[in-house]
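Onboarding guide, step 5: your first structure request.
Type a short instruction followed by the sequence, for example:

Predict the 3D structure of this protein.
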Amino acid sequence: MIRKEYTRTVWIALASTVAAIILLAVTPKIIELIKNRQEEAAVQVENTQVDLTAPPPVDESEPPPPPPPPPPVMETVKFTPPVVVDDPVVDDPPPVQTEETPQISTETHEGSGDEIVIPDAGAGNGVVEEKKDEIFTVVEQMPEFPGGIDAMYKFINKNIQYPQIERENNVQGKVFVTFVVDKSGNINDVKVLRGVAGGPNLEKEAIRVIKMFPQWKPGRQNGRDVPVQYNLPIVFKLS
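The system replies with structure tokens like these:
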């Protein structure tokens, strides 16, 4: 019995030894194989695939894209030369000038106002003519009635006489008169700018009173006395 068990035990020990030897010999190979598998898997994960496929060919039958729109055109205004025409008749009453209207000049030139013009050689008959005084409408210092504008209206109210025909026909209105105060302060060239319909005698009376004005203080421009055109309204009203 013991002999039988001994033989069996020897074979089991021998088989175990052989198996252990084989396992020891194969184990490094198995470990190396597993390590290689892990490295290959890591490399495959890190690689990035690049598509190197060529683009599709261009279809020449398709029309080209439209060109970009042109830049916006700036609007311009064409200059039209002015046309010189005669002064139109204005229905609105002309402005009233007073000595209180301030006028500003950037330069001051002294002069006597008695300058003469000498014609060029060979022109005319050789006669030296005196230069005519320019009549101004606006100057640095406007002409002034003696005592001021209030004194002027008192003079008009005192001397005006309402024409009988216009009084009987109840004709009322405002007469605009223009006249020139020369460089000596005298009243010249009295005219009616705008009268009253149906009242010709009102215009005549306005001119008569203006011609009665005393000598004015003349207007001044650039330090010298000059003639100035003056506009004045005279109101005819029945109480």
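Each response can be followed by summary notes, for example: The first helix runs from residue 2 to 46.
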